[in-house]
Amino acid sequence: MIETHIARRYLWTARKRAHTAFLSSISMLGLAVGVAVLLFSLALMAGLQGQIKKRLIASSPQLLIEPAGAPTIDNAAAIETAARRLGLSDIRPLVTGIGWGANDRERRGRPMRIRSGTARELHSDNEIAVTRDFAAAISLDIGETITVVAPRTRLTPFGPMPVWRKYRIARLDINAATVEEFKVPYQDSAAGVHSTFPAPDGSVWFAEQGSNRLGKWDPVTRQTSEFIDADGGGKVTVRVNAQGDV
User: Which sequence spans correspond to the domains of the chain?
Assistant: First the structure.
C-alpha cells in the first residue's frame, strides 16, 4: 500500500539519525492514538443515540390522536378498529394532563402530571402510582390516600365545583431519587462534618471537625446524637468495624 511505502521510506532513510526517527515514531503513534480515540467516540455516541431513541420510542406513542374541541374522543372504538386493521399492535386509550395532588391530613399539595396507562402493577381504578419525589414533597407513602383535583370545574346548583377524587398510593416510582436532610444538633457555629461511615446496625457515624464531636444518626428514631471529646482537637475521620466498634 502507498501509506506503508511512504512510512518505510522515511523511517528507513532516517534510521541513522536517531532523533529524526524517534520524532517520526512519536508522531505516528500520536496520530494512531488520536484516530483510535475518534473511532471509539463515534461508536460510543452512535450507541448512546440508539439507546436514547429506543427509550423515547418505548415511552412515547408513535401515533397520538387527540380530541379537537372536546375533552374526549367519541368514536374511540372505531379509531382502534381502523388502527388494528392497518397493522398497529399496541393500541391503548390515554388520559393525560395537569392536576393538583394533596395530602388532606397535613393540608399540603403541589401540581402533578397525570398520565394513565403507565402503571401496570395497579389492581383497581382507585389506585395510583406516584414518584418518590412527589410523595416525599407532600409526606405520603405507599398505602396512604392522595386527593387529586382536576383543573376544570363542574357546574352544580350551588355554582362551579372542583372535580376531585381520592386514590390509594399503590406504588412509588423508584427511578426518581429523593434527598432528605438532617441537621446536626450543634448549631453554635459550623460543625464541619468531614467524614461519614455506615455501621452494621444501619446507623451512620460522622466526624465534626469544627466542633470536635462525633455524631450518630439512628435510622429508626431518625434522631442524631453527639459525643464530645474532652481531649480537644478536631475530629476528621471516623470508622466502624464489623462488630460495631467506633
Answer: 2-57, 99-173, 181-246
Per-residue pLDDT of the chain (246 residues; tens, 9 = 90+): 676 776 666 666 555 566 666 777 788 788 888 888 888 888 888 888 877 777 777 666 677 777 776 667 777 788 888 888 888 777 777 777 788 888 888 888 888 887 776 545 566 677 788 877 788 888 888 888 889 888 777 888 877 888 888 888 777 765 544 446 667 776 666 667 767 777 877 788 887 777 777 888 887 787 888 887 766 666 677 888 877 787
Beta bridge partners of 208: 193, 213
Identify whether the C-beta of residue 127 lies closer than 8 Å to the C-beta of residue 168: yes
What are 131's strand-pairing partners? 173
Cα of 67 vs its chain's centroid, Å: 32
Tell me which amino acid residue 163 is.
V
Q: Within 10 A of 235 (CB to CB), how many other CB atoms are there?
A: 22
Q: What is the dihedral of CA 199, 180, 127, 120, to 10 degrees?
A: -70
For residue 41, is it left (φ>0), alpha (ψ between -120 and 50) or beta?
A: alpha
